[in-house]
Specification:
It is a multi-pass membrane protein. Residues 48-106, 175-254 form the Peptidase S54 rhomboid domain. The protein is mostly helical. Helix content is 70%, strand content 2%. The protein has helices at 7-26, 29-34, 48-51, 59-80, 82-120, 124-133, 142-151, 156-174, 182-195, 212-228, 238-257, 259-262, and strands at 200-202, 209-211. Strands 1-2 form a two-stranded antiparallel sheet.
Length: 263
């Protein structure tokens, strides 16, 4: 099985797995430094657009991404060549980080608008709506505070505590890191589906054969669904997955259009 590994795919696997072992068992503090943060966070560094894709939350996160590369990467490398498969992986990974950061900035601007509205016109209703929209970032005790604030809406102490709660949530949201090579993997996935659309793949769950183009279509639609129906409790960066699909498709379209370079 491992004899079929191509050089670039093998090196990506080794580097990513090595980074996981080091940051999990020897130097866990590096994960916070290499993960990708919101661009206005004091934890953000531009180098994180590259390093975040070599970090993973846990073993299963690492396994799912590396297993996908292990399955789809070698054939793509044989067909595209080592330079293009490396470019595909890196451009989709870095590009996904950049686009996701833009998406995060948009969401943060929405959050800031709601906070500004509360500061301009503090009220229990506004605060309660904010709690409902961001309940995953509040502690359970906030509901006791909501009740107390609703009973005494003019109390300056409670108004100040409400403002502090809002800014605390903003601080938490701004410092939620993104890690993982999923954007890069989704670029590889769509490239495989576009170049080998009728290749039969055998799924483990459920155990059935499916053509590559249908598998890619399913993942694409599922990703779009999750982006549109954003679940605040979901810690998966679906927009980064979608970004990887779009960037990967664009690269394959470009290569196929430039036939002399492609073949």
């Amino acid at each position: 099985m491992f004899k079929n590994l191509t050089p670039v795919v093998k090196n990506i696997l080794l580097v990513t797995v090595g980074a996981f072992v080091i940051t999990t068992y020897f130097m866990p503090q590096l994960k916070n430094f290499f993960a990708l943060y919101y661009v206005q966070s004091n934890r953000f560094f531009p180098s994180q657009f590259l390093t975040y894709m070599f970090m993973h939350a846990d073993f299963w996160h690492l396994f799912s991404n590396m297993f996908g590369l292990f399955i789809f990467g070698p054939l793509l490398e044989q067909f595209l060549g080592p330079k293009k498969i490396l470019a595909l992986w890196m451009v989709c990974g870095v590009g996904s980080g950049l686009l996701y950061s833009g998406y995060t900035a948009y969401r943060m601007s929405q959050l800031d608008d709601k906070i500004s509205q509360f500061y301009s016109d503090p009220s229990p209703d506004r605060f309660n709506d904010f709690v409902k929209d961001n309940r995953h970032l509040f502690r359970s005790g906030v509901y006791d505070f909501v009740d107390a604030y609703s009973r005494n809406p003019e109390d300056p102490g409670l108004v100040q505590r409400a403002k502090e709660n809002l800014m605390g949530v903003r601080e938490i949201q701004a410092n939620i890191p993104m890690v993982g090579a999923s954007g890069a993997l989704f670029g590889v996935l769509i490239a495989f589906g576009m170049l080998f659309p009728n290749t039969q793949l055998f799924l483990l769950f459920p155990p059935m054969p499916v053509k590559a183009k249908y598998l890619v279509l399913f993942y694409g639609l599922y990703t779009v669904y999750n982006v549109i129906n954003s679940n605040p409790m979901d810690n998966v960066a679906h927009f980064a997955h979608l970004s990887g699909l779009v960037i990967g498709a664009g690269m394959v379209f470009y290569w196929k259009k430039n036939r002399k370079e492609f073949y």
